[in-house]
Amino acid sequence: MFKSKKLCAILAAAVMTFSLGSSAKAASYTVSSGDTLYSIGNLFNTSSTTLMNNNGLTSTTIYPGQVLNVSCKTYTVQSGDTLYSIAKRNGITLGTLRKANGIWTDYIYVGEKLNIPVYTSTSTSTSTSTSTSASSSLQGVIPYTASDVDLLARLITAEANGEPYNAMVAVGAVVVNRVQSGQFPNSISGVIYQTINGYYQFTPVLNGWINKPATQQAINAAYDALRGADPSNGALFYFDDSTTNQWLWSKPITARIDKLVFVD
């Protein structure tokens, strides 16, 4: 009788441990501004076609607020967890975890279920970029090379070092948005080094800060932006809230993150 009870207790504990941990089950993702089926597919290591089939879509058109079925691991938040600790434990960047769950604050609660993309990690990304030549093209929401990542990360370091992480990702996203827009050069280096009427578009290029080494956090942010994370909500410009430039303030504000203002 004692052995039977002990066995039941062990089985119950095993079931509880499994249910509280990660599982590769169907999950849901809420579309945010700037998302495409392609970028969501990159985030969850799947294809646009699979997403369309799994959600009964007849076109690639999606809209903010739409809930899509995705396949990924899920994790139930436990007491003492933080977004950072969950991301680190699962081998993904904090920005990837935020993007997969639409969480841009640090608040999570016990019992909350989080999506855990399993296709990538900071260490994997760094390793890949190190082993790939500067001219070899990689594919995110836009094509990029290892040298593009370094340049983008240096811009992020110069523009947003000390700002919240999602502000750093948003700075990177503005460059990505410009590359995609058709209104600006179609490469990362072209966008960052662009001059209009003799004026550099990004102050760090003018003052030389673009040449300072990137921080690891900025490198992480650059990768997240290249994979489709966009806390700027589609912005093409950003500026410090202390600026008096009325032309910038007249544009529609898409996001405000600490001292940075993002506009379309």
Please specify the SSE layout and strand pairing:
Layout: H1 2-20, E1 23-30, H2 37-43, H3 48-55, E2 67-76, H4 83-89, H5 94-101, E3 113-116, H6 122-131, E4 138-139, E5 143-144, H7 146-160, H8 165-181, H9 188-192, E6 195-196, E7 199-200, H10 203-207, H11 216-226, E8 237-240, H12 246-249, E9 253-257, E10 260-263
Antiparallel strand pairs: 1-2, 2-3, 4-5, 6-7, 8-10, 9-10
Helix pairs in contact: 2-3, 4-5, 7-8, 7-11, 8-11
Give a written overview of the molecule.
With 264 residues, this protein is an alpha+beta fold. It folds into 2 domains: 115 residues, LysM domain (Membrane-bound Lytic Murein Transglycosylase D, Chain A), CATH 3.10.350.10; 142 residues, Cell wall hydrolase SleB, domain 1 (Arc Repressor Mutant, subunit A, Orthogonal Bundle). 44% of the residues lie in helices and 16% in strands. The protein is built from 12 helices and 10 strands. Helix 2 packs across helix 3. The longest helix is centred in the first third of the chain and has 19 residues. The chain starts with a helix and ends with a strand.
